[in-house]
Amino acid sequence: MGNTLKKSRFVERSERFDYTFKVKASTFGCNLYFNLQTKNVSSTGFLTRARMDIVPFQVNTILEIILDPQCDYFDKSVPCIGSVSRLDVVEENGIVFKEIGIRITEIEELDFQRWNESLIDLKSKVEKEKQKSKLETV
User: At CA 46, angle to CA 41 and CA 50, rounded to 5?
Assistant: First the structure.
C-alpha cells in the first residue's frame, strides 16, 4: 500500500457515533467482496452488521476494505486494511445477524486524513440533526 500509516492496537479507543453507510469487505487476497453496512463509526474502526448466513468472517480475520464504495457520503471511496476485532450474534425480528467490529490497521496517510475529516463533518451533521429533533419534540 505504499506510504501507510500503521495504528497500534494499544491506541485509546476513539469516540464513536452512530452512522450508516456501505462498506465492502473481503478476506485478504480474495476477490469475493461482502456488502456490509455500518452501525457506528470512529476514526479507528467501525461496527457493521450482516445476516449471519452471509458473512464468513471470524475474529482476527484480515480484511481488504472499501469504505463507502459508491461515494454516497464521501467525495471518494476509502480503501484500507482492517481486522475483525469482535463478533456478536444478535437476533432481531426472527433474523440472526452478525455484528462485526472492524479495526482499521493500515490506511494510506492521505486516505486517513480524508477519513478523519469526513467523520468530523458527519459527526457534526449527526449532532445537528439530534439537536433539531430534540427541539421538534419539545
Answer: 115
Predicted structure pTM score: 0.79
Alpha-helix runs per DSSP H in the chain = 109-137
89-103 confidence digits (pLDDT tens): 999 899 898 999 999
Strands (DSSP E) found in 7-133: 17-18, 22-27, 34-42, 45-51, 62-67, 78-92, 95-108
Give the whole-number percent of the chain exceeding pLDDT 70. Answer: 89
User: C-alpha grid cell for residue 132?
Assistant: 433539531
DSSP state of 32: -
- Contacts made by residues 4-12, CB under 8 angstroms, sequence distance 24+: 4/106, 4/107, 4/108, 4/109, 5/106, 5/107, 5/108, 5/109, 5/112, 6/105, 6/106, 7/44, 7/103, 7/104, 7/105, 7/106, 9/103, 11/44
Helix (H, G, I), strand (E, B), or coil: what is residue 105?
strand
Give φ, ψ of 45 to 5 degrees: 170, -165
What are the phi and psi torsion angles at 18 (to 5°)?
Answer: -75, 125
Interval 71-86: pLDDT, tens: 887 788 899 999 999 9
